[in-house]
Amino acid sequence: MFKRLGLLLAGLMLASFACADEVVAPATPASPAAWEAGKNYFLVDPPQPTSSGDKVEVLEIFSYACPHCAHFQPYAEQLKQSLPAYARFGYMPAIFNAQWEPYARAFYAAESLGALDKTHQALFDALHRDHMPLRSIEDLASFYAEHGIDRAKFLSTASSFEVESKLSHAIAIVKADGIDGTPSIVVAGKYRVTGQSAGGYPQMIELVNFLVNKEHGASAKPAKAAGKK
User: Fold this and answer.
1) Average pLDDT for 113-136
2) Which of 47, 88, 135, 194 is most buried (most C-beta within 10 Å)?
């Protein structure tokens, strides 16, 4: 399994550094009325399948290793709170180089063990605020053990078939979505947004909500038309 993942990872490693340029306070913020495809957001072609059922998927592509993702995390929380009931927020770890792979593996292990809610922000803080040297899966096992997760169970989960499959799936989806930097957000498997394209992180939240409503409106139109018949 590790060999297969290594081959997939090798095919995806286009750059050793893949954090997007951080844009928090733009000089010329875009107006919601002027959001343009190809400029403020980009179409995913072909659209990718989602895992949110009948809800509009909002997927943040991130890495714990990326400092800009750490800076974006409060905005991600704000975005989650702002989404309507017909949308669902989720995370997907990117693996752009070998150094990012243990963090993606740890994400899925924590998710599988039901520990993601209590460790997600904590790991960002440990890496980017406290500058803890957490680089290997063994280092990360010690970190999660400090948050109440059995070390051996974490390590066995991190190397399980379930996690291995999720890593392979994430690599394929990130590539298919055209993601070349983090943080990025993909809406409904169809639209790709970055802080730079939106004009800043606050505008990113506005744009994602615009796209969520756009997608929801498009999916609701046929039902309305059928109801009028």
Assistant:
1) 97
2) 194
Kindly list the domain boundaries of the chain, sorted by start residue.
Answer: 2-228
Q: What pLDDT, on a 0 to 100 scale, did the predictor assign at position 7?
A: 38
- Least Cα distance to 175 among 22, 56, 8, 40 occurs for 8
Q: CA–CA separation, 205 vs 195, rounded Å?
A: 9
Nearest in space to 178 (alpha carbons), one of 77, 66, 80, 38: 38
CATH class of the domain at 2-228 = alpha beta
Could you read off the pLDDT of 35-44 as tens digits, one per residue? 999 999 999 9
> What type of residue is 3?
K
pLDDT classification of 9: cutoffs 50, 70, 90: very low
Tokens of 158: 């991190």
Of residues 58, 53, 54, the one with CA closest to residue 41: 58
Q: Which two tokens stand for residue 11?
A: 């095919």
Q: How far apart are CA 210 and CA 203, in angstroms?
A: 10
Map tokens 């939240």 to a residue: 205
